[in-house]
Amino acid sequence: MRVSLIAVAAATAPLAVSAAGTLGFALGARHSDGTCKTQQDYEDDFDVLSKISPNPSSTPLKQLDPHTENLPIVRTYAQVDGAIQDTPCNVSGVILPAAQAKGFQVVVGLWAEALDADIKEFHTYAKQYESTVYAVTVGSESLYRYYHQTDGHTTGLSNDELNTAINDYTQAMLDLDLKFPVGTADSWNVYNDGTADVVVQNTNVSILLVNAFGYWQDVSICNASLTYFDDLTQAYTHISTVAGRPIEIWNGETGWPTTPGASYGVAVDGINEAYTFFKQGVCALLGWNKNVFYFEAFDEPWKPASTGLSNQTEPETGWGLFNSDRTPKFPNNDYSCTFDTMETNPNILC
């Protein structure tokens, strides 16, 4: 692994913080049994998440659009969630009023392979809840699934197809006299290896979410934060080099799972492992004034398994910061960030 300057700093010194990034949460559309959430369910989610955010109250979100206030934030993946084919969930009409009621903002995810249905659902409510929308992402790991999963390009989109989808959504948005930051979310490696260059260079793109997991890199918990920092450093550097203009960049997903008995190579699931990664990885990145979406807010026991770069399949049911019933996982309900990379306590493993 090529170790970045950020990673070296994390390994060798306490972190001095003059400003901190924003911690957001990836939020699913379904209950633990796979049925669809209601507005009240989302409001209950927001009540829990609002209590554990380590964001300093004086830290504004890094946003190109000046309408944004300093509010807690979540991201979604689709506005008609079709993950369970027979029970699709309409998302915009329940999450946006819930977010407005509880003082949250939402990065609205549009599933690029079902764009028309998602635009229809979102735009039914977009004007009414315009101030609640932080940005819109078109596609979720569309390029990674197309170019890096060994399924013969049966899922995801090519870079040209994704660019077309982004442009189509931008025009649909402008036709309604809406103006949101628009971009996409994808894995760090497709940004770093140049696969996403044509998307990065698309002038309709003003925000990019970069997903990075030490876990899916098959590294132990004691090496996971360094791998995470290095992957993001490579991706962020490449984006900045090829973009030719300012682009808002977030770490779009990161986290560590807690499913008992599961592992991905030498990356072992566990509560203390997740707690260690949160303290040493997530909190450190926030301390460097970088924005992070934790994947994910709550466990989703209904979910199918996921496949990493080595094509090993593992459960994706236990990635939540909280259990599916919204009870805390971390020792002593400790979701704080001291922004000190040398923090120690009995539950931090490294």
From TrEMBL:
GO BP terms: carbohydrate metabolic process; cell wall organization
Signal peptide stretch: 1-19
Similarity field: Belongs to the glycosyl hydrolase 17 family.
InterPro entries found in the cross-reference section: Beta-glucan_modifiers, GH, Glyco_hydro_17
Lineage, top ranks: Eukaryota, Fungi, Dikarya, Ascomycota, Pezizomycotina
Listed EC numbers: 3.2.1.58
GO molecular function list: glucan endo-1,3-beta-D-glucosidase activity; glucan exo-1,3-beta-glucosidase activity
Cellular localisation: Secreted, Cell wall
Top EC class, one word: hydrolase
Protein name: glucan 1,3-beta-glucosidase
Organism for this UniProt entry: Letharia lupina
SUPFAM superfamilies linked to this entry: (Trans)glycosidases (SSF51445)
